[in-house]
Amino acid sequence: MFTRLVNSFPLLNALVHRDFRYYWGGHTFAVSGQQMATMTQMWLIFELTGSALQLGLLGLARAIPGVALNLVGGVLADKVDQRRLLMYSNVGMTALYFILASLVLSGSLEVWHIMAVVFGTGAFEAFQQPSRQAIFPNLIDRKDMMSAVGLNSTIHPGTRIFAPLIAGVLIDQVGMGLEGAAAALYLVGGLYFTFSIALSRIHMAPVQRARSGSGFQSMVQGFRYVANHRIFMLLIMTSFSSAIFGMAHVTLLPVFTEKLMGESTGFYLALLTSAGGVGGLAGAFVAGSLGSIRRRGWLMIGGAGSFGLSLILFAISPWYWLLVALEWLASASNQMFSVTGQGTLHALVPDEYRGRVMGLWGMTHTVAQPLGGLQMGGMAQLLGASTALVISASVAVGFVVFGIGRDASVRNLDGSQVLAAARRESAPTPAVEG
Asked: How many Å apart are CA 181 and CA 47, to the nearest integer?
């Protein structure tokens, strides 16, 4: 039955590999925790301060460690056992969330406590993100690369459907709000620990590692490699632009919810967040199933451009339920670009550079998006949330039009050629059913 299901849906092909199933399942638990934590921390900050600027500072606290540690993590991902690095860092995140939950439950929570824990978990996230990106291609056959990338890309939007709702229900229904937030954070810590357990069950074959050298030299080599490959540089720069000027709009979701509904309850905020999850899941499913599409480049251009345009409409929407629909569309469009872009990098970048290249890509989430949240929160404080988002999203659209949209190497990218290149890459034979 499982084999028939996989054969019916190309997106599921990578699940025939045992070790990838452990990785994907554990990662799903961890990202569910991340989504719950983000929702809960945003609610706590807005409950304590009512300030859009403080929401932006929350993003800054997450971004600061990522500036350096994402690059260091990329170097380590190319040199050390990625599985162990991921296991230990997830245990560290479990401990931090348990500490924050205890502070909330004790009634001694202050804003700086939240900022400190976000800083710490941001450091762990930045440190491990390149290893998460680099490990899974070695758990599959390269012919299943787009399936694996597509499945990985369903995790964030898929968990956005239910994880924030769980956090919202806990906040609204357990105790007086703060008790529910504490319960959500304890659950978050448990979910991260589950990922560590899943990683302990993975058996990795030997992987080609980068040659020895100083960490600084390795980082410089990674930058030079990307700079010498124009298409890689453009994809990473577009990802940064979308994160800073587009994805960071999630920082303002509590503001838009309160503006249109009169209050920023856990339920309405979670529903808006979950709508983005449904849209992102749809976009990831479509992109993951179109790995061999001839006009792969136009799929990326269209996804990135539609993302920015959807956010402009989101910013000027006068109705909450239209916000929900536009959040769905924006997330679907963004995932179309993200899945296709990641798949292109994984297929074309060799093993010895993958950790560093994907470390740069990963800074989209660990650095660019939080910094974007800071600038968007600051602009919202001065100009209002709608004006801030219109300006930011317009910049994102402009970057697509005058960046990847004008580059022939991106426009002419052929999916079948990318898959052929992936199959030529040598890779260990992973375990299948058993």
From this structure: 11
Continuous H helices in 78-142: 82-106, 111-135
Residue partners of 320: CB distance under 8 A and separation at least 6: 257, 260, 261, 268, 272
Q: Residue 333: which residues within 8 A CB-CB, separation 6 or more?
A: 283, 302, 303, 304, 305, 306, 307, 310
What is the dihedral sign for C-alpha 369, 373, 376, 379? negative
User: What distance in Å separates the CA atoms of residue 403 and residue 412, rounded to the nearest whole number?
Assistant: 14
How far apart, in Å, are the Cα atoms of 290 and each of 150, 343, 424? 10, 11, 20
| Exposed e or buried b per residue across 218-245, where buried means at least 16 C-beta atoms within 10 angstroms of its C-beta | bbebbeebbeebebbebbbebbbbbbbb
Q: Which range is least confidently modeled, 155-159, 215-219, 303-307?
A: 215-219
**DSSP states of 329-384:** HHHHHHHHHHHHHHHHHHHHS-HHHHHHHHHHHHHIIIIIHHHHHHHHHHHHHHH-
Region 286-312: what's the mean pLDDT? 82
Please provide the size of the chain in residues: 434
Q: How far is CA 179 from CA 39, 162, 234, in A?
A: 15, 20, 46
Report the C-alpha gap between 150 and 425 in whole angstroms: 19
Q: CATH fold of 10-201+218-424, please?
A: Growth Hormone; Chain: A; (1.20.1250)
Q: How far apart are CA 366 and CA 151, in angstroms?
A: 21
Q: What is the mean pLDDT of residues 228-250?
A: 87
Alpha helix stretches (DSSP H) within 50-78: 52-77
Query: Is 3 buried (19+), middle (13-18) or exposed (0-12) by CB count in 10 A?
Result: exposed
Stretch among 28-32, 59-63, 271-275, 422-426 having the lowest mean pLDDT: 422-426
Lowest mean pLDDT among 276-285, 340-349, 390-399: 340-349
The identity of residue 61, as a single letter, is A
* Integer CA distances (angstroms), 22 to 125, 199, 221, 257, in order: 20, 7, 32, 37
Residue 210 DSSP label: P
Domain segments of the chain as ranges: 10-201+218-424
pTM of the model: 0.71
Q: Which residue has the higher pLDDT, 427 or 362?
A: 362
Residue with tokens 């996804």: 303
| Residues 184-230 pLDDT 10s | 999 999 999 999 999 999 887 665 555 555 556 777 777 788 888 88
